[in-house]
Amino acid sequence: MIDWPEREHYTAEDLVELIRILRDPENGCPWDKVQTHQSIRKNFLEETCEALEAIDADDATMLREELGDVLMQVVFHVVIEEERGRLDFEQVCREVCEKLVFRHPHIFASSAEQNAGINSWDALKNKEKGRRTLEDELDTVPLTLPALMRAQKLQKRAAGRGLCAEDAAAEAALQQAEAGWEQRTPETAQQAAGELLFAAADSIRRAGVDAEEALSFASKRFRNQLLAEETARKE
Question: Is this structure's pTM higher than 0.90?
């Protein structure tokens, strides 16, 4: 056992050290020391979703706990990479700090000099990441995003290059997709559903609404309505 000294205040560096101890090949925790990026991959998503629940509930106590769990996931993956000699926590912090400075030329003088004449956030990201072509931009939209979120990001990237249809054409595309859904067969149902959802996501994006959040909140309202109706029936 390790004699860990009590601390009145903990830092991010303490968290890194704790994960290193838990990952120690000889004396570490039997569970923690055998985990890999892949084995705890879904944990990252689960903890992030729980943090979102705390945000939606406006619960500061819950949010403090859930953000801590998200931070622990970040550090866990960093320590795995540290063991492989590929990166460390200091490098991760430095890169995100450099990114924040670079992308805010209206705030930081050094970034303003470096990015003179570039005002768009997306243009700054493209310069930073070396994106030059449409393919470069589309390939940076993660495949693992929820489908509605990914669709809207792809549509936004296309719109940024002037490749999206005008509003009237987009509305016509939505109507065509709706007609395709109405005329679906068992063989065409999946494709028709995809085209309908994609066209609807684009229409929603043009209205300035996040489709993923809109559907999440609608699902929440549906759940609450069902429970309210059930409670009313029992009274």
Answer: no
